[in-house]
Amino acid sequence: MVLSWRTMHRRSHFSVNGSESPAEEYEKAPTVVVTVKDDKENVISAGLASVAYQIGNSAEHVLQEDFTIGIRTEVKFSIPKEKLPAAGADITVKAVDNAGNRAEKKITVRIHTHRAVLVKAVEPTCLAEGNIAYYVCACGRRYADSSCTTEITSQDVVLPAKGHTEAIDPAKEATCTQTGRTQGSHCSVCGG
Q1: In the β-sheet with 102-111, what is the strand arrangement from edge to edge?
Q2: Per-residue pLDDT tens for 166-175?
Q3: What is the 3-state secondary structure (H, E, C) of the chain?
Q4: C-beta neighbour count of 30 within 10 angstroms
Q5: Furthest-apart CA pair in the chain: how many Å?
Q6: Nearest-5° angle of CA 5, CA 8, CA 11?
Q7: Can you tell me the distance from the alpha carbon of 181 to that of 186, in angstroms, rounded to the nearest whole number?
Q8: How far apart are CA 125 and CA 189, in angstroms?
Q9: What is the pTM assigned to this prediction?
Q10: Closest to 122 in 3D by CA, of 104, 134, 112, 110
């Protein structure tokens, strides 16, 4: 018997025989599509007798299918994303065929939880850019708020350099005791 499934957001594929499992986190809860097939390597197929799934420690959900009509060797069903907890969960699917063979597969569906780290505001200088205060998550995304609901781009956080503020230095005639200078300028903010 083979149990396989995929998520609707990413076309990942998991199977009992291949021992594959999802290694990534999902931004939002995906709809999990499960396919259960009786062992196609077996020449005589007993057909499926029952299929059930369990999310985390919740009650087991038995598929309401009529497996007595003909020999059903495959069943496909979806676990709606609304049934998954916000942080994700372990999903266990169990199948029994009419010969009493059992198969069980457990996968973990992880849903990313943003963890906001404050990046303090930096005032721009005459020559260097600054930035507004914002939050960044380990996933690399930037947010305007600590609850990570308003995503912003790297361009949104940059404050451009101010440029120099020119102040005119008037010319000064040289005297016998003092050096003179021609008219010039400097930055009234940084002195450069």
Answers
A1: 25-26, 102-111, 88-97, 48-55, 61-62
A2: 888 888 888 8
A3: CEEEEEECCCCCCEECCCCCCCCCEECCCCCEEEEEECCCCCCCCCCEEEEEEEECCCCCEECCCCCCCCCCCEEEEEECHHHCCCCEEEEEEEEEECCCCEEEEEEEEEECCCCCEEECCECCCCCCCEECCEEECCCCCEECCCCCCCEECHHHHEECCCCCCEEEECCECCCCCCCCECCEEEECCCCC
A4: 21
A5: 117
A6: 70
A7: 14
A8: 9
A9: 0.54
A10: 134
Cβ-proximal residues to 67 (8 Å cutoff; 6+ apart), any chain: 47, 48, 49, 50, 75, 98
Strand partners, 75: 36
Say how far apart CA 34 and CA 6 lie, in whole Å. Answer: 7
Which tens digits make up the pLDDT trace of 116-132?
999 999 999 999 999 99
Q: Which two tokens mark 69? A: 């009509």
> Which tokens sit at 71?
């020999």
